[in-house]
Amino acid sequence: MSDESRKFPKSDRILKRDEFRRVYEQGRKLHSRYFTAFVLPSPNERPRLGLTTTRKIGNAVERNRARRLLREAFRKNKWLVPVGVDIVINVKRPLVEAAYGDLEGEFVAFLARAGQQ
C-alpha cells in the first residue's frame, strides 16, 4: 500500500458550499442504515467525499467520531469508489453507536450500489 493511499488529502474532499449544493441538487440520493448519500459524476479524476453532521446527531464528540469513522471507511475502500465521482454523506443518528466494522460493511455495500446505477 503506497503512502498516498493511506492519506486523505484535500484533493479527496469536497470543501466548498457550492460543490455541496451541486451534488445535493444534481446527484442521485441513496439511503443506508447509517447515512444518506448523494452521488454525482464529476470531471475530477479522483473520487471526492464531503461529510455533513448536524447537531441532531449528538454533541461535538459524537459528530467528530462519526466523521472520523466515515473518512476512515472512505480512505480504506477508496479503490472501490468509481473514478470521477463526488459523494456527499449526511450522517444519521444510529452511526454514533455503530461499531467500525458494521459501518465499513454498510459503506462497501453502498459503494457497490452506487457503482451499479
Tell me what the structure shows.
By secondary structure, this protein is an alpha+beta fold. 38% of the residues lie in helices and 20% in strands. The protein contains three helices and four strands; from the N terminus they run αβββαβα. The protein has helices spanning 17-26, 60-76, 100-116; strands spanning 28-31, 35-41, 48-52, 85-91. Strands 1-2-4-3 form a four-stranded mixed beta sheet, sandwiched between helices. β1 and β2 form a beta hairpin. α2 crosses α3. The radius of gyration is 13 Å and the shape is globular. The termini are far apart. The model has no long low-confidence stretch (mean pLDDT 90).
Radius of gyration (CA) equals: 13 Å
Residue ranges: pLDDT <50 for 5 or more in a row?
none
Mean residue pLDDT: 90
The number of helices is: 3
Our estimate of the beta-strand percent is 15-25%
Strand order of the biggest β-sheet: 1-2-4-3
Distance between the termini: 29 Å
Overall body shape = globular
For the largest beta-sheet, the strand count, sense and barrel status come to: 4 strands, mixed
Class by alpha and beta content: alpha+beta
Number of strands: 4
SSE string: HEEEHEH
